[in-house]
């Protein structure tokens, strides 16, 4: 009796392209923080697949999608390298169930499952998610020769955003670009994320309008607040390169299921996320902000699309009246 993988696995070309774009970022996470990054990702992906399979079997499908693999990888890359295995497992189980399966499974989720998982562990287990960070190694072979790099002793210098909040100091732009900073495993190297974004746009896997909207909203409000003398807001260049903004804009905000479908809606949605990120970073307890901003954006995505369609319909009706 031959084994047919298609009986248990739903192949999705679009999701595979996202995985391809993430490979350099995954390798960079191993280089900067050690092999624990890959082990944690593998363990989380396994549990994510098992969780989806159990629920999809109840729906009469019984297949694990490539989408859940992407969800598990993205979720893992938003975690600190030292995140306990059991915390990661609880996170992905919660994200798959309450971010996806309760809505009916693949293609029906309102919220990005990876961010639902990240928000759950962030709120439920604050110490390993906000305090326990690891140094990024800069040696020739980097983390390829070790299980995990050393932990950061001082919280105020743990990540670029935390350092700015505590001391007002800005990290080196070179370090931000290449990823030689403490932080979540996949959010440190701006160059690799930008290259991944270009690949996703070129292959028409992700909407450039959403990415551009996030950056426009973020940079625009940051500039305005800086001009008015609000010192809690860093300069836009630093803000874009630090705190996971690029990672969120490229991989999370562009999720085709939980984001708007209309072109105009994608712009509005992206700008809304960028603006909310600035507000959260400057005036809330959370140093990053992009995670919660996207979840808020997910809430408004269907309304934005409806508004755009209604506006277009009413405009078309008025045009017909004029020409009649």
Automatic annotation (TrEMBL):
The chain crosses the membrane at residues 18-34, 67-98, 181-202, 214-231, 237-255, 267-284. The keyword Translocase applies. GO terms for cellular component: plasma membrane. Keywords: Flavoprotein, FMN, Membrane, Phosphoprotein, Translocase, Transmembrane, Transmembrane helix, Transport. It comes from the Bacteria. GO terms for biological process: electron transport chain; transmembrane transport. This is RnfABCDGE type electron transport complex subunit D.
């Amino acid at each position: 009796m031959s084994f047919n993988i298609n009986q248990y696995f739903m192949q999705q070309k679009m999701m595979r392209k996202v995985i391809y774009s993430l490979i350099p970022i995954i390798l960079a996470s191993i280089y900067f923080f050690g092999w624990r990054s890959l082990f944690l990702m593998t363990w989380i992906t396994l549990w994510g697949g098992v969780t989806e399979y159990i629920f999809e079997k109840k729906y009469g499908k019984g297949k694990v999608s490539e989408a859940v693999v992407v969800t598990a990888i993205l979720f893992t890359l938003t975690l600190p390298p030292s995140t306990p295995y059991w915390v990661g497992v609880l996170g992905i189980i919660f994200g798959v169930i309450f971010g996806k399966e309760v809505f009916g499974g693949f293609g029906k989720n309102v919220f990005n499952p990876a961010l639902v998982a990240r928000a759950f562990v962030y709120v439920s287990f604050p110490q390993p998610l906000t305090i326990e960070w690891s140094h990024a190694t800069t040696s020739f072979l980097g983390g390829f020769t070790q299980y995990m790099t050393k932990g950061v002793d001082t919280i105020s210098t743990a990540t670029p955003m935390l350092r700015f909040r505590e001391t007002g100091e800005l990290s080196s732009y070179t370090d931000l670009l290449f990823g030689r900073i403490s932080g979540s495993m996949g959010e440190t190297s701006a160059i690799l994320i930008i290259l991944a974004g270009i690949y996703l746009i070129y292959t028409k896997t992700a909407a450039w309008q959403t990415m551009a909207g996030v950056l426009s909203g973020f940079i625009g409000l940051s500039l305005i607040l800086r001009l008015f003398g609000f010192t809690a807001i860093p300069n836009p260049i630093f803000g874009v390169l630090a705190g996971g903004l690029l990672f969120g804009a490229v991989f999370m905000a562009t999720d085709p299921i939980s984001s708007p479908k209309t072109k105009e809606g994608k712009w509005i949605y992206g700008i809304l996320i960028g603006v909310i990120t600035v507000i959260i970073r400057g005036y809330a307890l959370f140093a990053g902000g992009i995670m919660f901003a996207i979840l808020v954006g997910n809430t408004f995505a269907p309304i934005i699309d409806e508004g755009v369609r209604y506006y277009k319909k009413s405009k078309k009706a008025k045009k017909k009246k004029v020409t009649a």
